[in-house]
Specification:
alpha+beta, 12 strands, 3 domains, 33% helix, single chain, 6-stranded mixed beta sheet, 8 helices
Length: 275
Amino acid sequence: MSSFSVIMSRFGSLDPEHLVTAMCNTLPTTRFDVLRSMGPRQGVLAQGLEEKQARRVCAVLCGLGDPVTCVPDSRIPVLEGPRSIRWCALSQESFSYPHGLHGETTQILWERVLVIDVGRGMKLSRQMKEVSSSPLAGLPHTTVQGASARMAVDYLSPQYKRTGEVFDVLDLIGVDVNGAIQHLRLPSKDFSYEKVLGAGTELSRFERFTVIVDYMVQHAHNAVVSPAVHDFLEAHEAIESVVENVVAEESLQQHQLGYQRWLLAGAITGFLKQV
């Protein structure tokens, strides 16, 4: 039996309470679970439903004025996480990038670029936690036995915390000259801008990144360009920060991948190209 997805049928946002109403009236779920599953950028709203359930959810949402439709899950392409690249070459005809272990390159013609999106990337780091003084300091040696000894071992073991450095990324999905779908990521941080724009420019790193994003948008005429790209080009403000809630950030980036699957589905089927 085929499973179905409920998806947005055009760019825009959906009131979370509308989805709560539709899902809770159709499925054995809770408001908390529905809200937890929603990402900040909405595309695929629900997956793995029976056809009757998906159509019921769609009917409720359409009745509330939301632009949604239901499609078989097979219509939502499988998409692996992006592969980061540190340099590229831009020409009037194509986008070239490293592909191989020995300096080889391949290319995607601009007319074969399907999706351009701007989002958040994260570079994880691990830092040792700072501790003030041992809870056993000052105790006689003979008392540090049994459970206390175990506490001492735990205390002396290195304690780390994970943090994530967040920055802008450009994600591009296209079909290369060999006919394979590629999901590529250009990070604004640690990117070799000199290989793209040449040396000697007085532009800041963010300004150089903006030039590359704008160039791709201007040349990939067939691509679905997410609203986040237009917002980025208008904002003139970089995203660079350090987050300590790594789990939440990782969840956010999983939602980002799900959103890009929706963009790719829109590019392939054409339902987003006229927006």
